[in-house]
Amino acid sequence: MKVIIAVVVAVFSLASIVSSQGIPAPPDVAAPPDDATCTETKLCTKILSPGTGTEHPDPWDTVTVHYSGWTIDGTMFDSSVTRGKPSTFPLNRVIPGWTEGVGLMVVGEKRRFWIPSELAYKNQPGRPAGTLVFDVELLGIEDKPKPPDPPPVPDDVAEPPADAQTTKSGIAWKILRPGVGAEHPKKSSTVTVHYTGWTTDGKMFDSSVVRGEPVSFPLTRVIPGWTEGVQLMVVGEKRRLWIPEKLAYKGAAGAPQGMLVFDVELLSFE
């Protein structure tokens, strides 16, 4: 079993020498050196100091790290070292370059990543752009159970089938499994659901089922298509919703685009 391993080494001595301007960029920040190793995805890495562990984190594990990040012009944009506090997060909830790169490491190891834009923030507005460089030290791994496999893509994901019904606002829906209750949530309700979402080309972009953990939220705090669609349901029901873009993310940068398809199971509501 992997456990959280506290590795208190030179991390805090590093923090003590960091100036107010941040940590100086590595001399090879502009491009991977000849002794770096690159994967098929074009992620390049170089081990700065070897670790003491033997196990690698899985994508669904939670890791604790110290890190600093620079753009290739040497500008530092983030650092847990300067904050003096390690960061802990599920490895599958970060940029793909981190998920892949940290998965190569063992506890106690320090490694430098050169992460191409397509594995980072894809030049989204307000995010660090281009290839990003990180120095990462893996401090610990918390073993998590492997999540369920992703649900299969619906056969009718591209458009609502003939037997789907449509609301006045344009949401199409189809009951996949009837519920056992008779009462519907109100707009002011807080609901607990399991769900999976796809774009109409069949790409899954989010799933509480895969994470293995239901989600609770007020119906007033989600996209309009969810606010309306979940109010049609009863507890125990599973329903497929086709939500037009105007009731989803309205073309917002960085959000799923176009009409979205959700399978939603209503577990309870308050």
Keywords:
single chain, disordered N terminus, mainly beta, 270 residues, 7-stranded antiparallel sheet, 2 domains, Chitinase A, domain 3, elongated
Compact overview of the structure:
This protein is mainly beta.
Explained architecture:
With 270 residues, this protein is mainly beta. It folds into two domains: 11-142, Chitinase A, domain 3, CATH 3.10.50.40; 165-269, Roll (Chitinase A, domain 3). It has five helices and 14 strands. Strands 1, 2, 3, 4, 5, 6 and 7 form a seven-stranded antiparallel sheet that branches.
Helical coverage, percent range: 10-25%
Largest sheet: number of strands, sense, barrel closure: 7 strands, antiparallel
Overall pLDDT, averaged?
Answer: 90
CATH class of the largest domain: Alpha Beta
Q: Segments where pLDDT lies below 50 for 5+ residues?
A: 1-20
- What form results from the Cα inertia axes? elongated
CATH architecture classification of the largest domain = Roll
